[in-house]
Design goal:
By secondary structure, the chain is mainly α. It has helices at residues 2-11, 18-25, 29-33, 45-57, 63-70, 74-84. The protein folds into two domains: 2-33, no CATH class; 45-90. Helix 5 packs across helix 6 (74-84).
């Protein structure tokens, strides 16, 4: 922004140093020269496609289960889940497996 203002003033024939413009607007010079170095994270399709197919088939599977079944690293699968915004959908209450009560075989011995 500061550099575009400087270019505009220069086009009008007014030469103002960058340091003075920064002082006028209260912006540090370091901020003017800053360029973001980190790239936008990308998702590799060779990971995303099988993961998407797996969670469409079984929406209740989490990233650990998907990673184990596909043979991928769980950190990679978790990162794909985060970047794509995929959320694990919980099973309905009636679909959860129930644990049957088994009578105890322990005997009291004195």
């Amino acid at each position: 922004m500061i550099q575009s203002i400087q270019q505009g003033l220069l086009a009008e024939g007014i030469k103002v140093p960058l340091t003075r413009l920064c002082a006028w607007f209260g912006v540090p010079r370091r901020t003017v020269y800053y360029r973001a170095a980190k790239a936008v994270p990308k998702v590799d399709p060779r990971f995303a496609e099988p993961i998407k197919a797996m969670i469409e088939q079984e929406p209740s599977f989490g990233y650990r289960t998907v990673a184990w079944l596909l043979g991928f690293n769980k950190n990679t699968v978790q990162r794909v889940f985060q970047l794509k915004g995929w959320q694990v959908r919980r099973r309905p209450v009636g679909m959860r497996p129930r644990i049957e009560a088994i009578p105890s075989v322990a005997t009291g011995s004195n």
